[in-house]
Amino acid sequence: MAGSPRRAAGRRLLLPLLCLFFQGATAILFAVFVRYNHETDAALWHWGNHSSAANEFYFRYPSFQDVHVMIFVGFGFLMAFLQRYGFSSVGFTFFLAAFALQWSTLIQGFLHAFHGGHIHVGVESMINADFCAGAVLISFGAVLGKTGPAQLLLMALLEVVLFGVNEFVLLGLLGVRDAGGSMTIHTFGAYFGLVLSRVLYRPRLEKSKHRQGSVYHSDLFAMIGTIFLWIFWPSFNSAPTSLGDGQHRTALNTYYSLTSSTLSTFALSALVSRDGRLDMVHIQNAALAGGVVVGTSSEMMLTPFGALAAGFLAGMVSTLGYKFFTPILESKFKVQDTCGVHNLHGMPGILGALVGVLVAGLATHEAYGDGLKNVFSLIAEGQRSATSQAMHQLFGLFVTLIFASVGGGLGGLLLKLPCLDYPSDSQCYEDQVYWEVPGEHEDTAQEPLRVEEPDTQA
Q1: pLDDT value at position 219?
Q2: Which of 408, 368, 394, 411 lies closest to 182 in space, CA to CA?
Q3: Looking at residue 55, what is its pLDDT?
């Protein structure tokens, strides 16, 4: 026992060492492989005799800005609802996303943009890296407050690789359409995090029960995240779609779906409470389910009515999940989902994938006209029927669930390595474990971090 403080101090040094090592490794890989694409490289752009006004930067960068705000402000503040974990929610979001952007640029580049021995990057690769960071942050929400930063860094290291492979299989090999990422981002990130949380299950987490809730001001901070996400979600879904009618349609469908999920959330929140009062947890999260549910189908001819119907159903499913299913998830399945990612991203993501299956199965040349080649190029070229495309969409959902489940299990085993520190059961959801909190005693921070023996009955 005398050596435990030294062991704890040694584990604390692991984070800066990992940061320096991973940053050095990515810098070397960038130097060897990463180059500007033809629209970014000064020499190549002028050789092509293009007009500067035609550069894709001017069309994509506004969407990128919106997505970037969602990742760093929206996700960060949405998770700041815990009364004693605000520094960690916002700070670790900042930390994980910054790493994921670099690492995913490499992984996605090797899989999608590797030509002539180099990865070619531009504004589109920036958007795709942000999408990958979004999946990592969704998984982070499932284990929020129960993991250390070194563990989270390793989680991101593994998840970014699996995200890239899953995305390559779905979008590249299977020809699945998933513009807003109902499958590749939300479903993958949610179930990766949920399985990870199951492997890291803490049977004695009630020791930190008093810090698991929110207070008035922490819920207000979380609502800031909700509003940012809600406002910019049309950009999130439309950012990677083809310019013109496809992007316009995607923004409209997301816009209407979000409004509908908000109304259904307010209605269900009041109906399921004992006295008809609203629950801020529902409003913060379930109101966003409309953006998740149309992720796959938003670029398709969903119709404004279809967007409203999908959003309304997603808001209902998400609200009921927070009220009834989250307690069952922990008591019966031993999954401690801190942020309720199963309700906001998991179930609406699956529902969104199924909506995509339905809308893809109804695709016709009459409905899409010449625009069919921009949404379903294989159908337009006669290589695949609408029914076949729908079956590929459904198969893509199963592939995503397999990648996420296996990846989450492997991630849980990785995060259980004895060299990694994490807060003990009594230290969870507490900023002082990893942060200097001004104006407060440091009794909690002085308590050495312990790697506890796993519960054999978990």
Answers
A1: 97
A2: 394
A3: 83
**How many CB atoms sit inside 10 A of residue 20's CB?**
10
Query: Would you say residue 200 lies in a domain?
Result: yes
Structure tokens of 390?
A: 């729908």
C-alpha 56, offset from chain centre: 25
What is the residue range of 38's domain?
A: 13-43+56-418
Beta carbons of 421 and 15 less than 8 angstroms apart: no
| Residue at 116 is within a domain | yes
pTM of the predicted protein model: 0.94
Residue the block writes with tokens 């640029």: 105
Burial class from Cβ neighbours inside 10 Å (0-12, 13-18, 19+) for residue 327 reads exposed
Residues 225 and 97: their CA atoms lie apart, in Å, by: 16
The residue to which tokens 């006295």 are assigned: 275
224 domain residue, yes or no: yes
2 pLDDT higher than 50: no
Compute the distance between CA of residue 184 and CA of residue 191 in angstroms, rounded to an integer. 11
Residue 75's closest CA among 163, 146, 141, 142?
141
Report if residue 444 sits inside a domain.
no
| Sign of the torsion formed by the C-alpha atoms of 187, 192, 195 and 200 | negative
pLDDT digits (tens, 9 = 90+) for 82-107: 999 999 999 999 999 999 999 999 99
Structurally, the chain folds into a number of domains equal to: 1
Cα gap 405→151, rounded to integer Å: 18
Question: What whole-number distance in Å separates Cα of residue 152 and Cα of residue 197?
Answer: 12
Tell me: pLDDT of 295 over 70: yes
Q: Which of 181, 172, 206, 228 is nearest to 331 (CA)?
A: 206
Residues 141, 147, 148: CA angle, nearest 5 degrees:
120
- Residues, the chain, total? 458
CATH of the domain at 77: 1.10.3430.10
